[in-house]
Design brief:
- Helix 12 crosses helix 20.
- The chain has six domains: about 100 residues, DNA repair protein MutS, domain I (MutS, DNA mismatch repair protein, domain I, 3-Layer(aba) Sandwich), CATH 3.40.1170; about 140 residues, Nucleotidyltransferase, domain 5 (2-Layer Sandwich), CATH 3.30.420; about 170 residues, Orthogonal Bundle (MutS, DNA mismatch repair protein, Chain A, domain 3), CATH 1.10.1420; about 100 residues, MutS, DNA mismatch repair protein, Chain A, domain 3 (Orthogonal Bundle), CATH 1.10.1420.10; about 220 residues, Rossmann fold, CATH 3.40.50.300; about 45 residues, no CATH class.
- By secondary structure, it is an alpha/beta fold.
- The radius of gyration is 37 Å and the shape is elongated.
- It has 29 helices and 29 strands.
- The strands form six sheets. It has a six-stranded mixed β-sheet with strand order 3-4-2-1-5-6, sandwiched between helices.
- The longest helix has about 35 residues.
Length: about 900
């Protein structure tokens, strides 16, 4: 296309790259910028809030373009992938000097960053995982694999049905999901609709069905062979294969240190569905979806990113085996009892940075010397962690078998740390990703390679000669303003202003003409320049080769680094739990196989801290007793704001903390292992999914009743609130009966309700117990005592709460009057309320009069007379005696006895 803006060597190269990556936004490296062109530029510019310009404006087909600096590229890439886009990073893979301006610099796509395959992990929150997942066999038995490429955490499981698989996808927070494009598997429209409804932020990527075939894998991570030998894990194997194939296509360098594959079973840990995690505010609060005011914020006292992620995983996957829980508790107890040792350990751990993510960064094509320097510092800190555990007479490792093995730097890690210390300078310089220039040097330590030292010495002598050249040439030529200049493309030159050109000697050779100056060279300068630049280029080439060798050594010892990271993560998480228990006075719970939950003086861990921080009232602790064989259902009644919802949550949180191996906020606790915590708490809708508040409530209740077991803990708050009073009461009653009467169910249940009629269940159901939160009424005000007492409550004090919320006084008084009329009514044979209207006959269909003079209920002559008398009454001029006489008179008029 003659004269076309697209018909240039650079654009032809770009278009060839784009043809190979049509579904990605191509970041095309040009010097210190990544440029985007054509549709990519038009799509990315508004998303990144950068200017959209054009290339070759004077040609008939100018090219839209935009760009971002190389040093800021990672944040822009993460922004695009967070929005669901893919980014292909196209780097210059040769030095521009070698191309010499005679041909185009060679460029290649070195990696593709996707929503689930992050680029540089810097900037990702320490406790967050960015998971790429794959599902296989979505019709029956389902395999699930998940990889966090930022840490190398690679796990797989197999479940019996699709519902469990979707729940697990929600729990791991997958960012991208691989599905087979084969008809009848990943292409099922109902599956995609369900994913869109439940996980609206998940990016679904179709892949070739052949990617699910493990037989074609070229790289086989540790753990894959065992999975292949297990015939009952065929679908899990297929999901693993899909993840590895996708990783190989988009980030092949990552397969050089393929992460170890771990298998897990959902039956080994407590199941926490999305509703439960949301209602209990484990990881996000319900206000702004941040960590503020959550359980993870409270218990996370970790000093490393490794420990933060380990704590988050323990909280998301509480244990079910009492023996394993006790091992973790022993470690927490041992660390909690030794304040000085724990302080030493935490201080030593602070020197260890995020080994997993440092390893991931160090092995990327865009890694720089500083990444290896940071990895070295962390490896060198490991022996200090081991010494902290063994100092003095307190040999914790010898006492507690559950702690990780000694971190006295196993040989492969120790050797690598020594190598990096020998090879790299103390503070490796900052070098832009993908840089290949001769000036990007100086990170290899002097004395590491003799040939590198020789080149540096030669270059230094040349630079010294050039540095003295300026003074000698000024003296020789008499040009006082002469300067020696260096340009990265044009090299060294002698710069003379145009006013002094007459003094330029004959041996000066013109090299470059600028607006106000001329630049020259000489034979001697050219010779020395060649030696200096040649030495610099040679040194840079050697340093790059040495850096690649060091990266290869890191990859070769990746497993040893991961083992060290595993130990640090365990120690940091245990120390965090011990610190929290010690600081807040929590106690070690007894966890066993019983069906009993008995907690003395339980407290809500987060609410208690908030009250302390804000200087409010002390938290009032309460006891808990649930037993599947005797006190299975605790029916909670009582006033609004009395503490029912807090109590429900604190029981669930204490149970969860106990099973993750933590201590709990109580005086004592015995927890019979819970296989699953179900919660139906709060009112919310999902209008975008077409579900009202009541529909959400009923859907969650239905899931509880269909999935709960005898070992479950069920938390129900105000079942039936979203519909009419009698419908709601009927549903709540039936749900309570179902939980009690269904054979084999008998789930331990906390059931909070405003339907006081439910307290009658205790008379006919042997395992139902009534309790309520006490309150006292004084001078038309209610005082909430926050104390749980046996028996049912008879009032909800809703009008008092409405007054506290600031409803107008007229509304409050009218509500009191209406409540009095309702409470004096009776029920007919069909259960409908019988309301007395204006002292007349009772009529179940009658409406309450809204006030004297209501058009629906015309006032009688007596009522009109009363209204007239009140209208002319001067309240301020009325004495108490006059008021009593007037009140008697008005009463007579309403009774029809005249004035």
């Amino acid at each position: 296309m003659s004269g076309s803006a697209l018909d240039t060597p650079m654009m032809r190269q770009y278009l060839a790259v784009k043809q190979r990556h049509p579904d990605a936004i191509v970041f095309y490296r040009m010097g210190d910028f990544y440029e985007m062109f054509l549709e990519d530029a038009e799509r990315a510019a508004p998303l990144l809030d950068i200017a959209l310009t054009t290339r070759d404006k004077n040609k008939p087909d100018p090219v839209p373009m935009c760009g971002v600096p190389v040093h800021a590229a990672d944040q822009h890439i993460q922004r695009l992938t967070a929005l669901g886009h893919r980014v292909a990073i196209c780097e210059q893979v040769e030095d521009a000097r070698r191309a010499g301006g005679r041909r185009l610099v060679r460029r290649e796509v070195v990696e593709v960053v996707t929503p689930g395959l992050v680029g540089d992990p810097i900037g990702i929150a320490a406790d967050h995982c960015v998971n790429l997942a794959a599902l296989a066999g979505v019709g029956g038995t389902v395999g699930l694999a998940a990889l966090d490429a930022s840490t190398g955490d690679f796990r797989t499981t197999q479940v019996d049905d699709r519902e469990r698989a979707l729940e697990e996808l929600e729990r791991i927070g997958a960012r991208e999901l691989l599905l087979s494009s084969a008809q009848g598997e990943g292409a099922e429209p109902d599956l995609r609709a369900e994913l869109a409804r439940r996980l609206p932020d998940l990016v679904v990527t179709d892949v070739d069905p052949a990617a699910f075939d493990a037989a074609t894998l070229e790289v086989r991570p540790v753990g894959l062979d065992a999975l292949e030998r297990d015939r009952d894990s065929a679908q899990a194997l297929r999901a693993v294969a899909a993840v590895l194939h996708y990783l190989g296509v988009n980030q092949p360098f990552a397969l050089a240190q393929a992460p170890r594959l771990r298998r897990y079973a959902l039956s080994d840990t407590m199941i926490l569905d999305t509703a439960t995690r949301t209602h209990l505010e484990l990881f996000e609060n319900g206000e702004d979806r941040t960590r503020r005011g959550t359980l993870i914020e409270l218990i996370d006292r970790s000093t490393t990113g490794l420990g933060a992620r380990r704590l988050a995983r323990w909280l998301a996957y509480p244990l079910l085996e009492p023996a394993m829980i006790r091992v973790r508790q022993e470690c927490v107890a041992a660390l909690g009892e030794r304040d000085r040792l724990r302080a030493r350990l935490r201080e030593a751990l602070r020197a260890v940075r995020d080994l997993e993510r440092l390893l991931a960064r160090a092995t990327r094509p865009s890694s720089v010397p500083r990444d290896l320097g940071q990895l070295r510092a962390s490896l060198e800190a490991l022996p200090g962690v081991a010494r902290a555990l063994e100092q003095g007479d307190e040999d914790l490792l010898g006492e507690v078998g559950g702690l990780p093995p000694s971190l006295a730097a196993p040989e492969p890690v120790e050797t690598l740390a020594a190598l990096l210390r020998e090879a790299l300078v103390d503070e490796p310089p900052v070098i832009a990703r993908g840089s290949r220039g001769a000036n990007e040097t100086g990170y290899i330590r002097s004395g590491y390679r003799s040939e590198l030292d020789a080149l540096r010495e030669g270059a230094e002598k040349g630079r010294e000669w050039i540095a003295g050249l300026e003074a000698s040439e000024r003296a020789r030529t008499g040009i006082a303003s002469l300067k020696v200049r260096f340009h990265p493309v044009h090299g060294y030159s002698l710069e003379v202003s145009k006013a002094q050109l007459a003094r330029v000697p004959d041996d000066y050779e013109r090299k470059q003409t600028l607006a106000n100056v001329e630049r020259f060279t000489t034979d001697a300068l050219r010779e020395v320049e060649g030696r200096v630049l040649g030495a610099n280029e040679g040194a840079a080439e050697i340093e790059r080769a040495l850096f690649d060798e060091l990266r290869d050594e890191v990859v070769a010892r990746a497993d040893a680094i991961r083992c060290a990271a595993e130990a640090v993560a365990e120690l940091d998480a245990l120390a965090s739990l011990a610190e929290v228990a010690r600081f807040h006075g929590w106690v070690r719970p007894e966890v066993d196989d019983s069906l009993r939950i008995e907690i003395a003086a339980s407290r809500h861990p987060v609410v208690e801290r908030v009250l302390e921080r804000d200087g409010g009232d002390d938290f009032v602790p309460n006891d808990v007793l649930l037993d599947a064989d005797s006190a299975q259902i605790l029916l909670l009644t009582g006033p609004n704001m009395s503490g029912k919802s807090t109590y429900l949550r604190q029981v669930a949180l204490c149970t969860l903390l106990a099973q993750m191996g933590s201590f709990v906020p109580a005086d004592s606790a015995r927890i019979g292992v819970v296989d699953r915590i179900f919660t139906r708490v709060g009112a919310s809708d999902r209008l975008a999914r077409g579900e009202s508040t009541f529909m959400v409530e009923m859907r969650e209740t239905a899931e509880i009743l269909s999935q709960a077991s005898r070992r479950s803990l069920v938390i129900l708050d105000e079942i039936g609130r979203g519909t009419s009073t009698f419908d709601g009461l009927a549903i709540a009653w039936a749900v309570a009966e179902y939980l009690h009467d269904t054979p084999g169910l008998a789930a331990r249940t906390l059931f909070a309700t405003h339907y006081h009629e439910l307290i009658d269940l205790a008379a006919s159901r042997s395992r139902v117990r009534n309790a309520h939160f006490d309150a006292r009424e004084y001078d038309q005000r209610v005082v909430f005592l926050r104390r749980l007492v046996a028996g049912g409550a008879s009032r909800s004090y809703g009008i008092h709460v409405a007054r506290l919320a600031g409803l107008p006084g007229a509304v409050i008084e009218r509500a009191r009057a209406i409540l009095a009329r309702l409470e004096s009514g009776e029920f007919d044979a069909s259960g409908q309320p019988v309301l007395a209207v204006d002292g007349g006959a009772s009529d179940a269909s009658a409406q309450l009069p809204l006030g004297l003079g209501d058009p629906a209920h015309p006032a009688s002559a007596g009522e009109r007379s009363v209204l007239d008398a009140l209208h002319v009454l001067e309240v301020d001029a009325t004495t108490p005696i006059d008021a009593l006489l007037l009140l008697r008179d008005l009463k007579r008029r309403l009774e029809g006895k005249g004035a």
